[in-house]
Every structure is written in structure tokens, then in C-alpha cells.
Design brief:
Elements: H1 16-25, E1 27-31, E2 36-38, E3 46-52, E4 55-58, E5 68-72, E6 77-78, H2 80-85, E7 91-94, E8 98-104, H3 105-114, H4 116-121, H5 126-139, H6 143-149, E9 161-163, H7 168-178, E10 182-187, E11 190-195, H8 196-204, E12 224-226, H9 231-241, E13 245-250, E14 253-259, H10 260-266, H11 270-280, H12 284-291, H13 294-303, H14 308-330, H15 333-336, E15 339-343, H16 345-349, E16 360-364, H17 373-386, E17 404-406, H18 407-420, H19 423-433, E18 436-440, H20 443-456, H21 460-467, E19 490-491, H22 492-510, H23 518-527, H24 533-558, E20 569-570, H25 577-601
Parallel strand pairs: 9-10, 12-13, 16-17
Antiparallel strand pairs: 1-8, 2-7, 3-6, 3-8, 4-5, 4-7, 10-11, 13-14, 15-16, 15-18, 19-20
Helix pairs in contact: 5-6, 5-24, 9-14, 11-12, 11-14, 12-14, 13-14, 14-17, 18-19, 18-20, 22-23, 22-24, 22-25, 23-24, 24-25
GO molecular function: [protein-PII] uridylyltransferase activity; magnesium ion transmembrane transporter activity
Pfam family, one: cNMP_binding
Protein name: Cyclic nucleotide-binding protein
Length: 605
């Protein structure tokens, strides 16, 4: 029996019996530098797992410059696809003296048959491989990871539906008999909701009789979900919209209700404790105490295996509530309805993890007058600083008068930016495209966004200039398709995150996609037919992988474990073999995305 480390995927997808079959069945082989281990066109007879040395993957049909497409080191494996396809498409050649474990074809095929998850690993896209890792964490007993995989259908209640002519007295009886906290109300072709609190307010505060109909007191603006949505997204929606329940829809039909108490019963999370502290804050000091808990929450979520996209959405919702409440505390009520506070950049996209710099602006309704607005906005900037949001180095903040303007003035700014097309103007357009209304009158931003789409979505020259930003930074791959490995690390933000964010942002402008998050934009572009689903999923998982690697470095810096390392830099040499494999695939996805954008927007010219 050979002593071999099988703790990493895909072997971690096997049980102990399966791993023992691997240990009993492998041999160890030595290859000289320059020796061809597996040649193009040769039948696949083994899966090779490198114990020591380095192996190059060569495309013999490519030019000399582009021939080297892969690079494998200790812990990496190759040859499985050659077995599945019958022959090898590429040549694998030792670049230095190498020792490899050899898993025979027959044993590999038997294990694939016995373990479907192991078989799937070799047939899947990047997105599916990343999903497998999360599922294995869940099976391994990580309660938060299990929660991340739970669907709304597992936690929803059967709805109690009444018509709008039901009296308050009858509604109370329905609630008591069904042990429910809310009723769905079908009235005049619409679906609404009435809760115990609504009924109590109607009787006590409004003085309505018991015979009053619930159609007159029901709420018809519902927060909805779907049965196959992740349960965590329902929790995020409740946090963002300050509600205690969501209605589960199937087409136009309500099929269930998810109550906050049910979600918290399914999984008790610190997230709700922080959310509750934010909502109960009655002054800036209390809000600051709640805000200070967010870094600890992030550490807890990541340690418990939360899928990063969900963590981003939850933190965006919590940050949004903090900034919203600060605006309400500081600004007169009549000013709030005549203005709209925007957050932009990663915060506007809902993709910040640790707190980012302030990137915000203010839209004023045309004709409104706000004496002393400069002092008010400076006060808001100072307060957000107290809450943990540092000032923007580029001064893109409401304390800068350039980022406070009326609707008409903003439309003029957008027109000038679109016409000039210089780097600063294009950056400002990108910032505005990511804007998200966080407080005040959100309709002011909706009108401005429509103006931006009308001005830019059909301007091919503007789109070409705008898209060119994706080529600003090189992808950290060598000419031969392998990972660059500088000692100081690769800049994952510039080389990985930015090209995806800006490329998807460009397509969103072209297709008039109103969503601001990169993940939501990807979904919308698939629905629009602009991207195919497998490639969009791979882009999303690449984005999540880059963000997770970046967050890991940021948390290490925050804890003082590696203060010398820049927070955006990832040292490839410190990654496991599986992580390097995923990173390489993700960066090749970025490279392909750049090529697609170059062809669509003629960036080669």
C-alpha cells in the first residue's frame, strides 16, 4: 500500500472505503525531465497524481508561443479526462524530474461508477465544482453550510387564504384555528396580507368595528420568494425590507408563507441578533455599537462555511439599514422625501464584505430648496465615519458638492460624461451605473437610471470606450496559461474581480439591466439571452472565488496574522493544489470573458 494524501478533492468526495481502494491500487512511477508522460492522441491508461516535480500540458496544434496551456505541481492530477474521452487531447511532459502516483484506468472507472459525485467532478464546470465543495462541507456537519443549502420549500407554511370581504372577527377566528400569524387576502384580483398586528391596530388605533372587512386594511405590496430559492435569500429579503415574512409564489399563485420565526427556528444565526440591534438603535451611539459587530459577524459566517454570495447580500442589507437609519436620524423628515441618498461602488453593488470607503451621492428633487445642505452633508459624512465607513480617497461623497445635485443637474452631468468619454467621465458613469438608493425617495434614482440607459445603451462608440476598461489590467496568467507566482502575490482585485465586474456592468448598460449586483446582472443577462447559463455560472463562481481569497487575506490582516501582506494580493504558493486548480480555471474564465467582450465591442481596434 502506498502512503498518499487523499484529503483534497476529488478524493475527499470518496468515503474511507473508496480512498482505501485508491491507496491499494496505485503505483509510483518516476519520469525524467523532458519525458513525455502522456501524449496527444494516446489512449488514457492512468490518472496521474503528482507527488513531486512539475508537468506541462501542451497543445501541439497551437503556435509555439501559445502551446503551453497548463502547469501541474505536487498535489495536482491529470489524465482523467483522457480516460473519459478515450484519448488524450494534449501532451503532458515532465518539466523536471517527477514522481507520480498512477491510478489504473479500470480502477478509476470502477470508482467513478461506485461514487457518482467523484465521477461528476471530472465532468463539471467551475461553478459545479465550487458547489460540490459547499455540499461536502454540509455533509461534514457544518450547520451553517447545511443552512446555506436549504430551500424555501423546506421551511414554508401552507398559506391561509381569505377573500377581501372577510370580517375582522372572522379573520381572528381563522388565525386562532390555524395557529397562524398572518392571512393572505384575495381581493379585487390582487393578493395581499393581513397580520395579527394589522388586526389589532385596526381595532384599537383606528377604532374599526369587528364587522369591518380585511380587504380595507390588508397590505398589497408583498415581498415574495420562490419555493426553490435558497432559504438564506429569504432571510436577506426580510432584513433588507424590514419584514417578518415573505410570500412564496408559483407564477401568480401564492403557495406558501415563510415566517422569520420559522427561519430562525431552522437556524439560529448571529445575523438576526445584529439586525435586531440595528433596528432597535434609537441614536447614533447605539447604531455605532451595532455597526461595530459586523466584522465579527463576517468572521463567523466565513468560518461556518457560508457561500460568499449570500454573505455579501446579507452584509449589504445590514450596511444598508445602518446608513438608512443614520440618514433618518440626521435629516429632517420633509427633506428625506425630497431627496435620495445613493451608495455606489462595491457598496452599491452589494459586494463589499469588510466595510469599504464611503462612495455616496445625493439627488435632490427639482424645485426643492434645502438651506444649509452643505453642513448637513458634511455632518452625514462625519457620522458615517464614526460608524466605521472611512472617507473616500477620491472624495466621491456627499460632503463634496460635486456629488450633490438636482435631478436636472444630474441628467446634465450624465450627458456630459457620455459625450466626453475621457477616463474620468467613464469612471463617473461606471460609478453611477452601480448606484443604489439607500434612503429617501428611491423614485428619483429610477428616473435618473432610465435617462442613463436612454443616453448610453445604443451608443456603440460610448459602449466601446466604456468596455475598454476590462483590458486595463492583465490577467495573472503566463503566456503558457499557467498561474503567475510572484513572491509578493497576484493582485486578485485587478486581475480577477475588476474585469468581471466591469465587463458585466458594460453588458448591463447595453441591455438596460436595472440590477446593480454583479450576480443579479449575470442572472438578468442570461434571461435576456446575452449570456448562456453555464458561462454565466462560471463567471459568478470565479467572482465568488476571487472574493473569498481576497477576504481571507483581509481577515488575516485584520487579525494581525499577516499585516505585511497587501489585502488584495494572493500568494499562489500558499494555496492548496485544489485551490490552485480552481484559481487557474477561474482566471481562464476571465480571459475568455475578455475575449468575448473584445469581439463584441471591437476592443482590438
Amino acid at each position: 500500500m502506498v502512503d498518499i494524501n487523499l484529503s483534497q478533492p476529488p478524493f475527499s468526495l470518496l468515503d474511507e472505503k473508496g480512498r482505501q481502494r485508491v491507496r491499494d491500487g496505485v503505483d509510483l512511477a518516476y519520469f525524467n525531465e523532458g519525458e513525455v508522460i502522456l501524449d496527444a492522441g494516446q489512449p488514457g491508461e492512468h490518472v496521474f497524481l503528482i507527488h513531486k516535480g512539475e508537468v506541462a500540458e501542451l497543445d501541439l496544434n497551437a503556435s509555439e508561443r501559445e502551446r503551453r496551456i497548463g502547469h501541474y505541481t505536487a498535489g495536482d492530477l491529470f489524465g482523467a479526462i483522457s480516460i473519459l474521452n478515450g484519448t488524450s487531447r494534449y501532451r503532458f511532459q515532465a518539466e523536471q524530474e517527477s514522481l507520480c502516483y498512477l491510478l489504473p484506468r479500470r480502477l478509476f472507472e470502477d470508482i467513478c461508477t461506485a461514487y457518482p459525485a467523484f465521477d461528476d467532478y471530472f465532468r463539471q464546470h467551475l461553478a459545479e465544482k465550487a458547489r460540490h465543495v459547499l455540499e461536502r462541507r454540509a455533509e461534514g456537519g457544518m450547520s451553517m453550510a447545511r443552512f446555506m443549502l436549504a430551500r424555501v420549500a423546506e421551511c414554508m407554511r401552507e398559506p391561509v387564504v381569505v377573500d377581501g370581504h372577510t370580517t375582522i372577527a372572522e379573520a381572528v377566528t381563522h388565525l386562532r384555528e390555524r395557529h397562524a400569524d398572518s392571512l393572505l387576502v384575495s381581493h379585487a384580483g390582487r393578493c395581499g396580507m393581513v397580520t395579527k398586528t394589522d388586526l389589532l391596530d385596526a381595532l384599537v388605533q383606528q377604532g374599526l368595528p369587528h364587522s369591518a372587512e380585511v380587504g380595507g386594511i390588508a397590505h398589497f405590496t408583498l415581498i415574495t420568494s420562490h419555493a426553490d430559492d435558497y432559504l438564506f435569500t429569504a432571510l436577506v429579503s426580510m432584513t433588507r425590507h424590514e419584514v417578518a415574512r415573505v410570500v412564496v409564489m408559483e407564477g401568480a399563485q401564492a403557495v406558501g408563507v415563510v415566517e422569520l420565526t420559522d427561519v430562525l427556528g431552522y437556524f439560529s444565526s448571529r445575523a438576526h441578533a445584529v439586525s435586531l440591534q440595528i433596528e432597535q438603535a434609537e441614536d447614533i451611539e447605539a447604531l455605532a455599537r451595532a455597526s461595530a459587530r459586523l466584522p465579527q459577524l463576517i468572521q463567523t459566517l466565513t468560518a461556518q462555511g457560508v457561500k460568499l454570495r449570500f454573505a455579501m447580500e446579507l452584509l449589504a442589507a445590514l450596511n444598508g439599514r445602518i446608513i438608512h437609519k443614520a440618514f433618518r436620524f440626521l435629516m429632517p423628515e420633509d427633506r428625506q422625501s425630497q431627496s435620495c441618498l445613493l451608495v455606489m461602488g462595491s457598496e452599491g453593488r452589494g459586494e463589499q464584505i469588510l466595510k469599504t470607503d464611503q462612495d455616496n451621492a445625493l439627488i435632490l428633487a427639482d424645485g426643492s430648496d434645502w438651506p444649509g445642505i452643505e453642513a448637513a452633508m458634511q455632518g452625514l459624512t462625519d457620522t458615517l465615519g464614526r460608524l466605521g465607513y472611512p472617507p473616500c480617497p477620491g472624495n466621491i461623497m456627499v460632503s463634496n458638492p460635486q456629488w450633490v445635485a438636482s435631478e436636472s443637474a444630474w441628467r446634465g452631468k450624465i450627458a456630459r460624461w457620455a459625450s466626453s468619454r475621457d477616463p474620468d467621465a467613464l469612471m463617473n458613469l461606471a460609478i453611477m451605473l452601480d448606484a443604489h438608493a439607500i434612503a429617501g425617495n428611491a423614485s428619483l434614482l429610477e428616473g435618473l437610471r432610465e435617462h442613463l440607459f436612454a443616453r448610453g445603451s445604443h451608443d456603440e462608440l460610448l459602449l466601446s470606450y466604456f468596455a475598454r476598461g476590462v483590458l486595463r489590467y492583465s490577467t495573472p496568467l503566463t503566456l503558457f496559461g499557467t498561474l503567475k507566482r510572484p513572491e509578493h502575490g497576484i493582485d486578485i482585485k485587478k486581475g480577477g474581480i475588476f474585469p468581471i465586474v466591469h465587463g458585466v456592468r458594460t453588458l448591463a448598460l447595453e441591455r438596460r439591466v436595472a440590477a446593480t449586483s454583479t450576480f443579479a446582472r449575470l442572472d438578468a443577462l442570461v434571461d435576456d439571452g446575452r449570456l448562456d447559463r453555464p458561462f454565466a455560472d462560471d463567471l459568478g463562481e470565479a467572482m465568488a472565488l476571487f472574493s473569498e481569497l481576497r477576504l481571507r487575506q483581509q481577515l488575516e490582516s485584520l487579525e494581525g496574522n499577516d499585516a505585511s501582506q497587501e489585502p488584495n494580493r494572493v500568494v499562489v504558493q500558499r494555496l492548496s493544489g485544489f485551490e490552485r486548480d480552481l484559481l487557474r480555471e477561474a482566471l481562464h474564465t476571465v480571459k475568455e470573458f475578455k475575449q468575448r467582450l473584445s469581439q463584441r465591442f471591437h476592443l482590438e481596434y
